[in-house]
Amino acid sequence: MKEKRITQHPILDVPERKEVEFLWNGRALRGYEGEMISSALVANDIHIFGHHPKDGSPQGLFCANGQCSQCLVIADGVPVKACMTPLQSGMLIESVEGLPELPADDEPVSPKKSPITDVDVLIIGAGPAGLSAAIELGRLGIDTLIIDDKDRVGGKLVLQTHKFFGSVEDSHAGTRGFEIASILEQEISELSSVRIWLNTTAVGVFSDGIIGAVTNKTYRMIRHKKLLVATGARERMLTFPGNTLPGVFGAGAFQTLVNRDLVKSSNRVFIIGGGNVGLIAGYHAIQAGIEVVGLAEALPQVGGYKVHADKLRRLGVPIFTSHTVVEAHGKDHVESVTIAALDEKWQIVPGSYKTFEIDTLLIAVGLTEVNEFYVKAKQWGMDAYVAGDAGEIAEASAAMFAGKIEGLKIARALGKTAEPIPQEWEEKAEILKSKPGKVSIKTPPASRSGVKPVFHCYQEIACNPCTSVCPENAIRTEGDVITGLPYIIDEEMCKGCMSCVAVCPGFAITLVDYRKDTQLPTVTLPYEIWKETVEVGQEVEVTDDDGNPLGTYPVKKVLSLKKKFPRTLLVQVQMEPEKAVKAIGIRVQHAEVRPTQTYEEALPMDEAIVCRCERVTAGEIRSAIRNGVRDINQLKAITRATMGACGSKTCRPMILRLFKEEGIDLDQVVDRVDRPLFVEVPIGTFAGVFGEEEDEQL
Hints:
- By secondary structure, the chain is an alpha/beta fold.
- It has five domains: 1-103, 2Fe-2S iron-sulphur cluster binding domain, sarcosine oxidase, alpha subunit, N-terminal domain (Ubiquitin-like (UB roll), Roll); 116-233 and 370-433, FAD/NAD(P)-binding domain; 242-365, FAD/NAD(P)-binding domain, CATH 3.50.50; 451-586, Alpha-Beta Plaits (2-Layer Sandwich); 610-668, Orthogonal Bundle (Arc Repressor Mutant, subunit A), CATH 1.10.10.
- It contains 17 helices and 37 strands.
- The strands form ten sheets. Strands 9, 10, 11, 12, 13, 14 and 25 form a seven-stranded mixed β-sheet that branches. Strands 2-1-7-5-6 form a five-stranded mixed β-sheet, covered by helices on one side.
- Helix 2 (128-139) runs parallel beside helix 9 (396-413), helix 6 packs parallel to helix 7 and helix 9 packs antiparallel against helix 10.
- It is globular and about 85 Å long.
- The two termini are 32 Å apart.
């Protein structure tokens, strides 16, 4: 079992967990009690969870977030989502081959009446926005209930090992995402008026003002005065041949396996999408000891922060801008991927195909709001609010501010406070949601004396922790605004404490010290990969901003400011002065990445699957559109697209995109009618046949 487990990590501690035995198709395997079935299977190197009844295609993990249904398995005779079902000792798990058989209905059931829980405020989602709102409400003593479908609070924060941007005072800048989740959890635990139900999925919003939810297998009804939807976002998918092969993950699923469940799901990954999600996922892969073969972005430049892209380049990851994915190859699992260059008209450049051997393809092409609960609540006339990615896709630091603001709005609406929304909150929220600004390359310091920080931060983003941690108050940002580029007021003020180097989320600050040797000054580089590769005396390849090698140098010293910035190593080397001011990274991937073969002809894009649940192709949908279909409900009747278990959560954005590609104005398209329930629920849950479950509260 340990082959696919992460047993050591440069950032994360490996917890003690109870090992249990379970059966997979009659074969005895071992996993950890309480981990999701999908993680236990992948840890045992099992990636095919079944085969689709329509075409026999292999089915495996994709979203790991309960949004799709591709990870369906049979657990103790019942169809369940593997990514949302905890493993238990002795569990009998089987792959889904064809249509799953339903359990026998041996005797009639007398339905039980579900209890109604009354609360002042119901918050759906225990991520950064929901928790931040609850803290504001709890401080005012307002009866608040948070529900979340995971087994812990924090949302996507628990998947983030990197340090956050923003400011130290307002959004915990310089602190890692999973640590921020713990901070918020602790604050919540001290508020007696706030309850949390974990493993509780909101499944429906009803016209009588009731929210239906399922805790484990028990159905509950919640009646609220105010509703806050903080359900986050789901990942977008792309249409390309091979897009549903096992091993083609959403980037969030990959982070869930690697950072939450400590499962080394891959050996060689390729990433499609150069936004922050894709760039960060690449960094997380390297921290987990996984090779990142490359990253492709369709735009001429990455859409995420330059510092995130620079981190990958310095580590040895090639980034292919103006490139797109053409096809994922493999029979039962992805084995290689082909990408190609795009011209200025977004057409594939002939002869530009490149194919790389991989075992995992990460799709990170953006997010879409999980807002169906909010939309339906407003339709039924509820007093509903929305915060975080459910309202607008942005960074987690922005979600925290949005939650604070909406929490105070709700408190005002309940008459629990007359305090106005601070204008600075609104202003900071807008700043934190802002896109990366212009890039300005700065000339490094010319003087070769004393000790001084060198800033490799060239892009205007909302981030300034370096100004907060400097004990000399020597660092400022241009214009004294959070998006300004950092600079030092007076080089003579720096005492060489290295705090700015250690705190920087972008690893964009180094320290150059000429005090002992002006001919070979000491350069302090931030490093958060494997400490075994930077032990004193080892030769390391040092790179510049763009990942170009500056030379190989022996490590002189490795430090860590453990009390303030644990897990960040400060690696010191001595370099020539002209190179010292350029040095910023340590390369860890040294092998040159070469395409494995020449790819001459792509499969038709119309063969790509759009609707995963019903295996409907892009070609089938295009054909219907060209035949005059302008109503997604009609499209469903003709092709079965959107009819599957996920309720069109994954295919709807791609269908709308196909309408646009066919030249149809989306104003002419009738959207699908939402199902009364947004999530699949066994009938027995509504009937109350599974027994009462205890509330899971903090």
